[in-house]
Amino acid sequence: MFTGIIEGLGTIADMKPSGQGRKLTIDADFVLDQTKPGDSIAVNGACLTAVKIQGKHRFTVDVSPETIVQTCFSYAKPGDRVNLERALLLSSRIDGHLVSGHIDGMGTIKNKNIQSNAIIITFGISQKTAGYMIHKGSVAVDGVSLTINRCDLNSFDVSIIPHTAKLTTIGFKKIGESVNIETDMIGKYVEKFVTGKKDVPGKESVSGLDKNFLMKNGFI
């Protein structure tokens, strides 16, 4: 579990094929103190497992074929800068929001507009991904916890302050570039409880949650 508050940047130092997946070696800009093989590290928002730690800054992760298909790692190359966050400690403050590191899909930067000291960025997304977004809700973009300023059926806006622009890759990504998107997990659970939706095809069930149930139990 992560918070969407980026610890620092890193650079993809090496990329090798591993079956249908890939093995990435990344150099972190910060010291990986107390990090060991088996620990989770979010790389551009995707939860990956460190399989090797080399020195104080370098680590290696395996990227599965599924992760490559669902994320921007399909476009990644050595030299790319990435956002890094190690897994949340139970003793830590949650300054962002609860982020699982499981990417829902990709988005594309459609527009960047400077307003006073902020950068308003518009991202294009699929209608399915947009269905889990609400005005003033939370979203993780390349692992960065952000607040949604506006959303519609296929896009959303966020406001980036100078601090975030300086410390994450969002500050220097250009129009047309792709990003990883993770929507707030609460919406997914609510949808499943209310609709009775199951993950197994052909196994849909009818939910006991409806307007009458909510009114009877004092929720509305």
Automatic annotation (TrEMBL):
Lumazine-binding repeats lie at residues 1-97, 98-194. InterPro entries: ATP_synth_asu-like_sf (IPR023366), Lumazine-bd (IPR001783), Lumazine-bd_dom (IPR026017), Riboflavin_synthase-like_b-brl (IPR017938). It catalyses: 2 6,7-dimethyl-8-(1-D-ribityl)lumazine + H(+) = 5-amino-6-(D-ribitylamino)uracil + riboflavin. Pathway: Cofactor biosynthesis; riboflavin biosynthesis; riboflavin from 2-hydroxy-3-oxobutyl phosphate and 5-amino-6-(D-ribitylamino)uracil: step 2/2. SUPFAM superfamilies: Riboflavin synthase domain-like. GO terms for molecular function: riboflavin synthase activity. Its EC number is 2.5.1.9. It holds the Pfam family Lum_binding. Residues 1-97, 98-194 form the Lumazine-binding domain. Keywords: Repeat, Riboflavin biosynthesis, Transferase. One of its GO terms (biological process) is riboflavin biosynthetic process. Catalyzes the dismutation of two molecules of 6,7-dimethyl-8-ribityllumazine, resulting in the formation of riboflavin and 5-amino-6-(D-ribitylamino)uracil. Homotrimer. This is Riboflavin synthase.
